[in-house]
Design brief:
Layout: H1 15-25, E1 30-35, H2 42-55, E2 60-64, H3 71-76, E3 81-82, E4 86-90, E5 93-97, H4 100-106, E6 110-113, H5 129-138, E7 142-148, H6 156-163, H7 173-177, E8 181-185, H8 189-197, H9 204-212, H10 217-245, E9 258-261, H11 268-282, E10 286-292, H12 301-316, E11 320-325, H13 329-339, E12 344-348, H14 354-360, H15 363-370, E13 375-379, E14 388-389, E15 392-393, H16 405-424, H17 430-448, H18 450-468, H19 480-529, H20 533-548, E16 551-558, E17 561-568, H21 576-588, E18 592-593, E19 605-610, E20 615-622, H22 632-681, H23 683-699, H24 705-736, E21 745-747, H25 749-759, E22 768-772, E23 780-782, H26 784-801, E24 807-814, E25 818-824, E26 846-847, E27 850-851, H27 858-868, E28 872-877, E29 884-891, H28 894-900
Helix pairs in contact: 1-10, 11-12, 13-15, 16-17, 16-18, 17-18, 17-19, 18-19, 19-20, 19-22, 20-22, 23-24, 24-27, 25-26, 26-27
């Protein structure tokens, strides 16, 4: 984006300029030695400057230098470190290219790179050498490089007109725009021709041919002027940036903004280059716009590829690209230009005949008519496919092929209209019958399009004349009024056909947009309803594949790399080139692979999946069609889909992060509770054991027998308490790990209650136990060991909370399909808010500031054991008086129910 210039009178630095300056300080500095033609001494001057920097103590290496056998140039390389070139295999040959990995590993302060516009050998990391330079600069390494003016992309057409030679190796203007310094290596045409004759540039035989063609004095003068102007423009840009960054007052640019209109025709490439040159001359921001009308849906794949190429070139040349839907191209362009403050519009000259312009209209004429205060540039752009220049255009005649089926259907519909007219002839006036044919023509226009409708109009006119106008069954017309009627019939049919066809195209485009909007809505709704990452990836891959007709693969980060996590079709595999491209996209957050500037040899095009916060992955696209994988409209659709998918992926990942954070918090909470419990429940019995054992050791001989027995009993009791505590910890670990597998068999509940009471005799010694367990209860499936432990934990809990000498009651009764066992006490009871929480791990009921001694594991273990055996347990309070009630429900096996019945 281009920021607005400072307002008049505001003497403050531009924030955008300061930000841009700060960002550039993190990158390496680029200096370009620019020449008007080969042989002016660019490489020589670059090496001289490199040697001077080395003399100043700068670490300088040669990345690549082409001396072309010149002795004086080779001599300048002496004393400078040369990075060995990498060898790339291509068609049985080994080609030498700059080893970018070696340069980056060496990491000098300055690297010399000759011939910036050079095309790398196939299989290299980047197709172009300037892309290697960009990567070097991104690592903070300064670069000196050389470039001829004919290799500048926006000047490609101009150089071709001057020299009659079109240069295929070009460099985007954005490279020159980001250069920190441009040094013009200037040489007069006469001096350059003299060097050429002396054999200092080419061999003598080649030199004579070069002087006759490329190196003519007129060509060299024109190229020299181009180089001088381009360098001057860059100097002006640097001066303006400096003034804005430092709030230096002075004359400002007029604030022009340029908008170039592009379409599917190949001349749009030349229009984009012209707009870039115009923007350079005016030092103005610029953009390329395409209006998507109803006819855009019917474009061929080749036409869509040409449009995509034009828009892609505009981006490479530093322009903004805009695609908007509309109906009237000229009106929509002028409306957009007016609302976005564009002062100049560039468009191509119409190549239609006058008759075609009368029927279809002329966009150029409409732009001029509607432009108002906006300047319009109508240029005779070069047709890239037909070759030549604006002065000499060779139009290639292409034989159009049409499907005759719509025309046959149109003829059939005209025949139907004729039959209806013949049937109505005796009821209607002959002029009214013409309306029957008009209806038929409208039907053809709405269903089949413009050209079949025009064909039907002509057939209808002949049929109307032949069958209904006197004299009948001839093509001659006797009545002058009938002639006028026939002419008006043709006129109305043509106009109606055109309007109906246009409405049909607009309706089709509207349906397509509505279907696309509906698909996007359903996709968004589907993503919102998915909770797992796999579901999001599958939905994304399937939706993109079905809507864009491509094959999709999605890669997500895993550790320090990325791996394939989804795709459609699901059995797609990646080769080494694709893996390298995907990794490059993930590391640099830029496109790579097929159709991109980086690693274009890959099978797929890889694009980053990112949100406003971060990048979440990489998506690869592939299809069987030649040319670009995505057309401009598909690119917009993909961006909409990818944005939604990236947000959904991020949402799932954030939910996972939140869950992990909650688990970590719960683990910390449990760890804290466990440490608190252990510190209390280990310290108390250990202190008692240690005290009793120490007393026995030191005073055993002087103690009475009863005291010694009491001390030994203390050691035993506290040891058993420790053993129960450790057993509870182990049992809780088994439950939480899901490793609890009860050994079920039929048992009488009364027997297990008795066994548990015998085991808990010591802890219940100060309580009265009331038992009401009928002897005829049915047998239930239980693990005797686990159920006994459950009862022991409940008895232990009751003994802790119930005052001494209060009763503990055990009741049991049978229902048709279950047995219920209740254990109640006369303690303080359980607060209503804690009835469910008492079964949580390490939870203990508080009473004021007091917390009852214990680990908080007993009831949690009891619930785990009961649920593992297929039962349930709940906590409550007694209805009469105080006290807690724990109720266990156990299912009765079916055969036991039948037997008791």
């Amino acid at each position: 984006m281009t920021s607005d210039p400072l307002r008049f009178g505001e003497n403050r630095p531009s924030p955008d300029a300061l930000l841009e300056q700060a960002e550039r300080e993190t990158l390496g500095r680029l200096k370009i030695f620019l020449g008007a033609a080969p042989g002016v001494g660019k490489t020589y001057e670059m090496l001289m400057s490199g040697r001077a920097r080395k003399a100043d103590g700068i670490d300088v290496v040669i990345g690549v230098v082409e001396t072309h056998g010149r002795v004086e140039t080779e001599a300048l390389t002496e004393g400078l470190e040369i990075i060995p070139r990498a060898q790339v295999a291509y068609r049985g040959h080994l080609l030498d290219e700059m080893d970018i990995d070696a340069v980056l590993a060496r990491k000098p302060q300055l690297v010399l790179v000759d011939e910036l516009a050079h095309t790398n050998a196939p299989g290299s990391r980047h197709p172009k050498r300037y892309q290697d330079v960009e990567e070097i600069l991104a690592r903070g390494i300064d670069v000196y490089t050389t470039l001829n003016i004919q290799h500048v992309e926006s000047l490609n057409d101009v150089v071709a007109q001057i020299t009659r030679i079109r240069v295929r190796e070009t460099v985007p203007d954005s490279i020159i725009d980001r250069a920190d310094d441009i040094e013009l290596i200037d040489l007069t045409p006469n001096d350059l021709i003299k060097r050429l004759n002396e054999g200092k540039i080419y061999l003598p035989k080649t030199a004579k041919r070069a002087i006759r063609n490329y190196f003519s004095p007129g060509n060299l003068t024109a190229l020299r002027e181009l180089a001088l102007r381009r360098t001057a423009q860059r100097v002006d840009e640097q001066l303006l940036s400096h003034m804005r960054a430092h709030a230096i007052e002075g004359p400002w640019a007029a604030g022009d903004r340029i908008l170039v209109a592009v379409d599917e025709r190949s001349r749009s490439i030349s229009l984009v280059r012209y707009a870039r040159r115009l923007a350079d001359r005016l030092r103005a921001p610029w953009a390329a716009i395409h209006i998507e009308t109803a006819r855009s849906a019917g474009l061929t794949e080749e036409a869509k590829d040409r449009l995509a190429a034009a828009l892609r070139l505009a981006e490479q040349l530093g322009g903004e690209t805009i695609i908007i839907p509309g109906q009237s191209v000229a009106e929509d362009i002028v409306r957009y230009a007016s609302t976005h403050n564009f002062t100049q519009i560039v468009a191509g000259k119409s190549i239609k005949s006058r008759w075609r312009e009368m029927i279809d209209g002329s966009i150029a004429r409409e732009l001029v008519r509607l432009s108002g205060a906006i300047d319009i540039h109508i240029t005779a752009a070069v047709d890239q496919e037909n070759g030549g220049t604006p002065r000499k255009v060779n139009t290639a005649s292409q034989k159009a092929t049409h499907d005759i089926t719509p025309y046959l259907i149109g003829a059939a519909m005209t025949g139907i209209a004729l039959v209806i007219g013949l049937l109505l002839e005796q009821f209607l006036d002959v002029r009214s019958i013409a309306l029957v044919f008009v209806v038929g023509v409208l039907g053809v226009a709405v269903t089949l399009g413009l050209w079949p409708a025009l064909f039907a109009s002509l057939l209808s006119a002949f049929a109307y004349n032949f069958f209904f106008l006197s004299p009948l069954y001839t093509l001659s017309i006797a009545d002058p009024e009938s002639v006028v009627a026939l002419v008006f019939f043709l006129f109305v049919s043509f106009i109606a056909s055109n309007l109906a066809s246009r409405v049909q195209r607009q309706a089709a485009a509207a349906r397509q947009r509505a279907r696309m909007t509906e698909d996007l809505y359903l996709f968004s709704k589907k993503l919102a309803g998915t909770g797992s990452l796999d579901d999001v990836l599958w939905a994304t891959a399937f939706q993109i594949a079905s809507m864009l007709k491509v094959r999709v693969v999605i890669l997500l980060p895993e550790g320090n790399s990325i791996t394939v996590r989804g795709g459609y079709p699901p059995d797609d595999t990646l080769d080494d080139a694709d893996i390298a491209a995907a990794h490059w996209t993930w590391e640099h957050d830029l496109p790579a692979g097929r159709g991109a500037n980086t690693l274009p040899g890959a099978k797929r095009l890889y694009l980053p999946l990112k949100t406003a916060r971060t990048s979440v992955g990489v998506i690869g696209l592939d299809n069987d069609r030649m040319g670009p994988i995505l057309t401009p409209e598909q690119q917009r659709l993909f961006e909409a889909l990818a944005d939604q998918a990236a947000i959904a992926i991020e949402r799932v990942q954030l939910v996972g992060d939140v869950e992990r954070a909650k688990l970590a918090a719960e683990a910390d909470k449990l760890r804290s509770a466990l440490l608190t419990s252990i510190s209390h429940d280990l310290k108390t019995p250990l202190a008692a054991i240690l005290g009793a054992a120490t007393t026995l050791r030191d005073y055993s001989s002087s103690l009475p027998d009863t005291d010694r027995s009491d001390l030994v009993a203390t050691v035993v009791d506290q040891s058993e308490r420790l053993n129960r505590f450790i057993a509870n910890l182990l049992n809780m670990t088994r439950i939480e790990a899901g490793a609890m597998k009860p050994n079920l068999s039929l048992h009488y509940v009364g027997d297990l209650v008795g066994a548990a009471l015998n085991r808990a005799a010591k802890i219940l010694v100060h309580h009265q136990v009331n038992i009401a367990v009928p002897a005829d209860l049915p047998m239930v499936q239980l693990d005797a060991v686990l159920f006994e432990q459950v009862l022991f934990n409940l008895f232990d809990n009751a003994a802790k909370y119930a005052p001494e000498n209060t009763p503990i009651t055990i009741k049991a009764h049978a229902a048709p399909s279950r047995i219920t066992l209740e254990i109640s006490d006369r303690g303080p009871g359980i607060p209503p808010g804690d009835l469910e929480r008492v079964f949580d791990t390490f939870y203990r009921v508080r009473k004021g500031d007091h917390v009852q001694a214990g680990t908080g594991l007993g009831l949690s273990i009891a619930r785990g054991f009961i649920e593992a055996m297929g039962g349930s347990i709940r906590a409550g309070n007694r209805h009469e008086g105080t006290g807690a009630v724990f109720t266990i429900a156990l299912p009765v096996p079916t055969d036991e129910v039948d037997r008791n019945s």
